[in-house]
Each structure stands twice: as C-alpha cells, then as structure tokens.
Amino acid sequence: MTETPPNTATAKGAAHPAGGRSALRHLLQGERPYMLYVAFAVMLVVFSLASPWFLSIDNFLNIGRQTTLVSIIAVGMTFVIISRQIDLSVASTLALSGMSASLAMAFVANNWVVGAVAGLGTGALIGLVNGVLTTRLEIPSFLVTLGTLSGARGLALMVTNTKPVIITNEYYFAIFGEGSVLGIPAPILWTLGVTIAGILLLHYSVYGRRVYAAGGNPTAALYSGVNIKQVTTLAFVLTGTLAGLASLILSARSHAARPDVVQGMELDVIASVILGGCSLFGGRGFVLGTLLGSLIIGTLNNGLVLLGVSSSLQLVIKGAIIVAAVAFTRR
Amino acid sequence: MIEQGSTAIEQGSIAGMSPLLRVEGVSKRFGGVNALRGVSLEIRSGEVHALLGENGAGKSTLIKILSGVHVHDGGSIEIDGKPVSFASPAQSRDAGVAVVYQDLSLVESLSVADNLLLGREPRTRFGVLRKSLLMAQAEAFLKSQNIPLDARAMVGSLPFAYRQMTEIAKALMGDVRLLILDEPTSALTDDEEKILFEAIRAVAARGVGVIYVTHRLNEVFRISNRVTVFRDGQNAGTFITQETNMRQLVGAIVGPDHAVLKADDTASAQSPRAPAHSADRPVLDLRDVGNDRLDRVNLQLRGGEIHGLAGLIGSGRTEILQTIFGLLPVQSGQASLDGAALAASGPAAAIGQGIALVPEDRHVQGLVLDHSIERNLTLPRLPDFSRLGWLRRRTASAHANAAMRRLAVKAPGALTPVKNLSGGNQQKVVFGKWNEPRPRVLLLDEPTVGVDVGAREEIYGVIRAAAAAGSGVLLVSSDLSELLQLCDRISIVVDGRITKTISRHDLGSAEDLHHLIQLSQPSEEHAA
User: Fold this and answer.
1) CB contact under 8 A, A22 and B415
2) Average pLDDT of A198-220?
3) What distance in Å separates residue B233's CA from the closest CA in chain A?
C-alpha cells in the first residue's frame, strides 16, 4: 500500500501520451499487428509476378468496383459480428431492396430519391426484423437470418415472377453508378464514405463503445446499464440499410434490378470481416481491417480469375481462407 | 481441541482399523497464497465425514487435490495404505475417488439410464445402441445401490434432489471407494434433503467413505459420523458428531482469538467515522417487496449507513440487490428511493436514479475482460463523456486516469486490458465504475472474494469513504468478520426474507453472527 502513489503516478504519466498513439494504432491495426497489411502486400506481389495484366490502374479500379458491394455491407457486418451476432441474409436483402427501389421508380415516381428511400428502407426493415426476432424472441441470429436469407430472396423472386425490372432514371445512374468526382468512380466514393462513417460510429461514438461491450461481455454490459437488445437491433438495421445502399449501386451499374443477383455473397462479406480481424466470439474488430479484408478477398477473386483458376476452385480457396482466419483469431 | 477430538476417536469402535483415506500434512501454494498449510484428514470406509470451514479455509483446495485437479506440494496422501498422487482427474477416478460437484453435469434431455451409462453404452457388434440392455443395466445398478430413482425418467423433468441423486449414482458407477459431495444440498427443500440423505446413508452402508462438504451446520448433525473443521488452510479440529455441539463447531470454524481480534479492529475502525444519520429519512425503503425469489422484504437503508445482508448462499441476498438494481421485477410491495417510487425497469433506469451495483462475479458480471481499464470504467456513464452521441475521448480518459489514481489501481496505463490485472486491481476497477459521481445507493455483492489482503483493506477504505460521503451502502458478504468490521446494521436473510435486523453494537463476535444465521434456518432440531 505504501508503494502505491509512485506506481500510479508513473502509470498516469505513461498513459496520457500513449493514449493518442494507441488509439491511432488500434484504428490502423486492431489487435493483430500489421498482419493484414503484410498479407495484402504479399498477395499483390504474388499476383503481379504471376500475371502481366494484374498490375495496372484499370485493373485496380476494376477490383475497387467489384469489391464495393462487399466492402459496404461488410462495414455493417463488422458491427453485427462485434456484438456477437451474425447476419446471413445480406445478399437476399440486397436483392429485395433492389427490386423495391426499381419498382418504386417504375410505379410510384421516376425520381432517384424515391428509389433510394425505397431501397434503403427495405434494407433497414429486413434488418429490423432480424434484430427484433433475435433480441426479443431470443432466437440465435444464425437461425433468424438463415430464415430471412430464404424469405427475402423468395419475395424478391415473387414480386415480378423472377423477371428483372428496368431502371431509366439518369440521376440514379449518375449518383450510384456511373458518375465520378475527380476521376474517382461513384461506387468507390460511396465505399470511402461508408468506411469513414463506420470508423466514426464504431470508434468515436457512444454507440460504438456499447457495441463492443455488448459483444465483449453481454452480462457485464447489462449490469452496466447498456440496453443490449437495442444496441444489437441497431447493428442489424445498419447492416440491412447498407445492403440496401449496395443494391442501389448494383442496379445503377446494370440499369436494372434483378431478383437473382449476388447469391452467396454473404460468404464474401463475412470472410472480409473475419479476415479483417473481427472475433466471431464478439467484442473485437475494427472497420479499417474490414475494408482491408474485403480488398484482400476482392484481389484474391480478381487475381485467381486472371490466373485462369476455375470459379469452383476459387470457392474452395476462399472457404479454406475463412476457416484459417477463424482458427487464427481464436485464442 | 485437535487432541481432544482424536483421542476420543482412538477409543471409538473402529479404532485400529486402517483408514480408507489418510491425508497427512498436505500443503499447497498458489503463487503467494498458502491455500493449505499442512492439513490432515482420515476417512474410514462406511463413514460420512463432514468437512467444514469458511470460504477460503482450504476445503475446495483439498477436494481438488483429491480429485486430481491440483497436485499437492507437500505431505502425503494414502488410499488403503498405499501412497498416491493424482496428476489428472482420470487417475483419481481410477483409484476409486468420485466427486459430485455443486453444478450438475447431467444431460437434461436424456433419461437417468442414459446419463448413468453416458459414454459406456452397451452396443451390438455393429455399434448399434442396445436400448433395452442399457435400461436393464441401469435399473440393476440403481437397485444394487438402493437408490430410489426411475431409470426411465427424463433428467430435465426431475426435482432437484433426484437430479442430485442421479449425479451421485453416476459418480458411483465403477469401483468407488471414496465419494466426495461438495455442498450437495444448497438448492434443496427439506423433503428433498431427506431423500438425498437416505441415499447417502445407503451408499455409506456399502462401505464407501463419504466426505461431505457443507456450509450448513445443522446438516452436519443429521448426516455425519465425524466432522473435521479447516480454518485458514489448517486443521481446526476433528470431532465425533454425537459428542459435539453447534457452539463448539462454530468456535472451531471462526476461531475464538480471531473473533475477539476482529471485534477490536471494528471498534477502532469505526470510531473515526461519523455515526449513521439515524434521524434521516431512509434513502432506500423496501416495504413488503416480493417476486419469484423474494418474500415480503422490508428494509430501510439510510444515507451514510453500511448495512450488511448475512445469510447462506442461495438465501436470497443477491436477489435483494438484483431487485433493487432492476434485474428482477418488483411484483408486490413498494420500493422507493428518496421518497419517490423506484423505477425498477432495468439496470439503465436504476443507474439513472443513482443506484450502483458491484456484482458477485466480476469476471462474468462486472467487467469486459478483453477491454481496457478505460473502456470498463466509462461504460456505465458513457453519455457523461459524450456530446450528441459522440465520445469526448479526452474527458473519458481524464476520468479514467483520475479514477485509477483515486483507487490506486496498479496498472501500466488506462489502456491496459483488464484481464492483465490482479484480482484486487480488477475489483478496484469495478468499484471505479461507480465511484464518481457518488451513487445514492451502493450495492455490494461479495466485494472482496478472490482479493488479496492488502487490496482488501484498500477496498474497505473505498466502501467507508462512500458511506462517509452520504451513500447508503448495502453489503452482501459470506465473510462474517467482514460484515462485522464494516457494517452499522446487519440483516439476516433466510429463504428470500429478512428475518431479523440487528445493530452492530448488539453483536459481539463473528461467532455470535454465525450462530444467529444458523439459528435462523428452518428445521432446527439440533439447534439447542
């Protein structure tokens, strides 16, 4: 007891300057020092050596565009997984949101705002259903979202009897698909915007702290007055809304919404989040890691295509990487 | 006392027979803590031997050594005269030692027979389960042991006593010489207890030695042949049950010198503190509060008062705190804080009203172990460190550093993960969550369990400071000397009710309090 004052004094002195640095370091590398950056760099080198087409601006913009959908949804999935849940329904949510956006513009008003509200709203609503069923009925989110995975896809196929819906709104194309600012395509700008918003929300807001606590130890969070049901439900709503945003980007790119798009994309989204350093056991992860994880998955897809690896083998390789990443995060 | 006990036993009828189990001078250290300092114990076949002692006296350490979880550092253990040392639970099991722990390890969705033969089910040559044979084997076994259990019953549908009995039956499968029961009755009704005791007697009658660990003194008189008491990792006496009485056992458990010493401590510790403001209106007022776990609880907590809740584990002490904190509903009666009704809609509302809880299990309920000290300290009051939902990191970190300094938390910095701290420092972090601003009501559930002596004194200082600043403190503790040292008043909790509230001045020693608790228990034929 007598040696306490000097001890804590030094502790205090060390904590303050280290505080800022440490927060920045956490933002950049989470809890796994630089592994992600090394993995990403190694992959770039390997593909550059293996394929002459890999190392070009066009190809990187290509990767960026292809990765957009996964990256955007993965930011929401980061919140869900940190709060110790999972959302398998994101690809179906995307499909149904796209149908909803295109139908709203076809039948309500051919205005991009109407389309955006319908698409985002549909996504948010599915997220709300996922969240409420998970927290109020206490059904594991794995099962709830397995249900919405099937249900939302079925609804999307039902509304037009599996036919695509054509979109004709030029503003819509420009804002979500084909426009660009300073040569940067709109989808990539949306990805950057969502990533920055995700970083602010997860690392700089009260809500973000509560997400970490709810996943790190739900009982302790409850005993500290955190409304876990609300926090978890919001994470699902966020993910659903971002799946809605992704549907706008996809349909603006193809000038149509199709009900059978992106089947199985939840695999890429979850793989990005886990690869990015989130623990499936909750309480750990960071948004920048997720972005990097999705870029790794996107680059892997792109590189394997350039190398002429069959799409079947690509699935096997991705599956192996997910399992390896989970084995690695488990302590 | 020890000599007196053992001479009496030498003259006993079974004298001369070599004991089934002989533990001689066994010691065990954990880091800097001497959990066992040379304890001895003899168990004869056919006897039920009760093992008593306060929390931390060394009972569970010895059981863990006998069951192969820990290896002893010194001394010897013999079974049937052969020295043994168990490196694993499997070795202990092979030597004929079976342990039944408090937390049941049964599969509730399977039948009693399935559970008994789990992992060694009879099969055909092709690996197909032979159900009728399994049932027949289980029934034959239960019959041979005189255990009144229906082998076909689903474990999940059984009352607690029968589950406990299934557990015992499962432990007895194979060649068992020594059966260890670790507080088997903590959740039983009187009738259930009777059924279980008969089963235990039947087991002993077959020549098995039974070690019966308990906190409940009156049980000792109903079930055991002999009693051994541990205190601070040493023997505090062995008695023949019929020749001893409750006062003698309590004396051995608490230690007479110890009680006197603690009483003196209390007097000196209390004098500098202002007396409780007895004239004030109570901060917290519970009138006939009831729910599934509580039965018409009446309690008035004054500002500046430290009020103890004493009782056995499972008596409802924790539930009183949980109800005040909004984790359990108030279904009947009235609870009010500063004269206004208590919201009681959940922890968030309780915290908003100025109620704080330091929960029983800091690892499960108190802390997010993976997260930093700062994150844990700021979690209950995040809105205070934010503007429009955005964190003000500098304010949060200043708060964390101030709290660490005030509570003398020993850590490299506020960003150190809580899991890297010692138990005492972890507990200080839990206190720090509620330290500033002062809560109106501070609820403490076993605040010094697993905390070393130095940190314990510091935590006592924190508790006294909270009361001195006007908070009403409600303290649940199984450590009676802790209650006596800190509290102004103590209430006894039995079966979800407060049966008695006594002023500290009317209690002499921990022994008196121990008596009071034991005497408050229902069905008390050996009380006198």
Assistant:
1) yes
2) 94
3) 25
Distance from CA of A7 to the nearest CA of B (A): 7
Work out the minimum CA distance from A225 to partner chain B, whole angstroms.
4
pTM of the entire predicted model: 0.75
pLDDT greater than 70 at residue B436: yes
Q: Are A56 and A112 in contact (CB under 8 A)?
A: no
Fold of B260-354+439-520: Rossmann fold (3.40.50)
Q: How many CB atoms lie within 10 A of CB A274?
A: 26
CATH 1.20.1530.20 is right for the domain spanning B2-96+175-254: no
Is A217 in contact with B415 (Cβ distance < 8 A)? Answer: no
Residue pair A262/A94 in contact by the 8 Å Cβ criterion: yes
Distance CA B67, CA B55 (A): 19
Single-letter residue type at A81: I
Under 8 Å between Cβ of B308 and B272? no
Among A19, A217, A221, the residue with its CB nearest the CB of B415 is A19
Mean pLDDT of B321-348: 89
Identity of residue B357:
L
Which residues in chain B have Cβ-Cβ distances shorter than 8 Å to A19? 393, 397, 413-415
3-state secondary structure at position B478: coil
Assign B120 a pLDDT band (cuts: 50, 70, 90).
confident
A204 reaches B (C-beta below 8 A): yes
Strand order in the sheet with B74-79: B33-43, B21-30, B74-79, B82-84
Which amino acid does the sequence have at A108?
V
Which CATH fold topology does A33-329 show? ABC transporter involved in vitamin B12 uptake, BtuC (1.10.3470)
**Helix (H) or strand (E) segment spanning residue B201:** helix B190-205
Alpha-carbon distance A234 to A239, whole Å? 9
**pLDDT of B89 above 60:** yes
A117 has pLDDT over 50? yes
Q: In the prediction, which pLDDT does B285 show?
A: 92
Chain A residues in contact with B351 by the CB 8 A cut-off are: 224-225
The amino acid at residue B257 is D
Amino acid at position A230, single letter: Q
B190 compared with A12, residue with greater pLDDT: B190
Q: Where are the beta strands (DSSP E) in B346-488?
A: 355-358, 386-387, 390-391, 441-445, 472-476
Between positions 217 and 276 of A, the ones with CB within 8 A of B are 217, 219-227
Give the integer Cα–Cα distance in Å for B284 and B472.
Answer: 8
Answer yes or no: is pLDDT of A193 > 90. yes
Which residues on B lie below 8 Å from A12 (Cβ)?
A: 401, 404-405
What is the location of CATH 3.40.50.300 in chain B? 2-96+175-254, 260-354+439-520
Q: What are phi and psi of A324, to 5 degrees?
A: -60, -40
* Extended beta strands in B296-445, E state: 297-301, 306-310, 332-337, 340-341, 355-358, 386-387, 390-391, 441-445
